[in-house]
# Entry
Amino acid sequence: MSSTRRAAIDGTGSAPAERAATGFPPVARPDARILILGSLPGRRSLAAHRYYAHPQNAFWRIMADVLGVEGDYAARCAGLVESRVALWDVLERSVRPGSLDAAIRLRTARPNDFEAFFARHPRIARVGLNGKKAAALFKKRVVPELSRPPGEIVALPSTSPAHAAMSYAEKRRRWRAFLLGTD
# Structure
């Protein structure tokens, strides 16, 4: 197999669909107590430069129902910050053709700098992982590298429209329990 063909297959090629996606900076203030982590923004989020921009993603709807976070994107982010909830992703960058977490090319995945993040946000006691991929990546690629792992780490049901097997009501119930500390 040619090196060009191999590069295209393993995600190191430079074809437009194979370029690495780069995530966003965290939405947080120093006294945050909860950190919510996705895996890596999908295509719609990257195009809009906003976390959870897909209109069918339940994330912002759940935040409105549970924390009262509403309004335009800036207002919703400000509401999270006021609620002492930080928002970020496990990965800083990776090749991911499309938006499905299953398409993340693990060989190209680079985690964010959580050592520095937790040093700047020492009060974070709970980490909520939005979906199975975020949970697996965080537990395998981040936690073993931390000098001081955060307190409680909870895998939450994905808010993605691709996770249609669980009802919105059940997703909201589980997220509510996590966010309000009643789980």
